[in-house]
């Protein structure tokens, strides 16, 4: 899956949150393949391996996950998730 989201607190803060979330993501069948940000650090781009889009969507709306993302500067309503075929 390709995902992007706008951020307000810069790459380092967002990436620290994402790294700390790895075990929870793995238990939901998700794994980062690529993480990067635009040079102005206002938008991130991700490639995430997912077992299913349904699980990914469920994970992304969990209140605890949304809260952590917001705390790290993610503008969650700007999130775009696009399924990709390999």
Terminal CA distance:
10 Å
| CATH class identity | Alpha Beta
What is the fourth-level CATH superfamily? ACT domain
Number of helices: 4
Q: What would the principal axes of the Cα set say about the shape?
A: globular
CATH domain topology? Alpha-Beta Plaits
Number of separate domains: 1
The low-confidence parts are none
Which architecture name does CATH use? 2-Layer Sandwich
The share of residues in extended strands comes to: 35-45%
Order of helices and strands: EHHEEHHE
- The strand count comes to 4
**Spatial order of the strands forming the largest sheet:** 2-3-1-4
* Mean pLDDT across residues: 95
SS-based class: alpha+beta
Task: Give a quick account of the main beta sheet: strands, pairing sense, barrel closure.
Answer: 4 strands, antiparallel
Radius of gyration: 12 Å
Task: Please estimate the helix content.
Answer: 25-40%
Describe this protein's structure.
This protein has 86 residues and is of the alpha+beta class. The protein has one domain: ACT domain (Alpha-Beta Plaits, 2-Layer Sandwich). 40% of the residues lie in helices and 36% in strands. It has 4 helices and 4 strands, in the order E-H-H-E-E-H-H-E. Strands 2-3-1-4 form a 4-stranded antiparallel beta sheet. Strand 2 and strand 3 form a beta hairpin. It is globular, with a radius of gyration of 12 Å. The N and C termini lie close together (10 Å). The mean pLDDT is 95.
């Amino acid at each position: 899956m390709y995902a992007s989201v706008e951020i307000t607190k810069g790459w380092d803060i967002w990436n620290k949150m994402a790294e700390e979330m790895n075990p929870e993501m793995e238990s939901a069948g998700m794994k980062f393949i690529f993480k990067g940000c635009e040079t102005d650090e206002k938008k991130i781009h991700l490639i995430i391996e997912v077992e299913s889009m349904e699980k990914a969507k469920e994970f992304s709306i969990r209140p605890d996950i949304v809260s952590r993302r917001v705390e790290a500067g993610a503008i969650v309503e700007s999130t775009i998730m696009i399924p990709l075929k390999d």
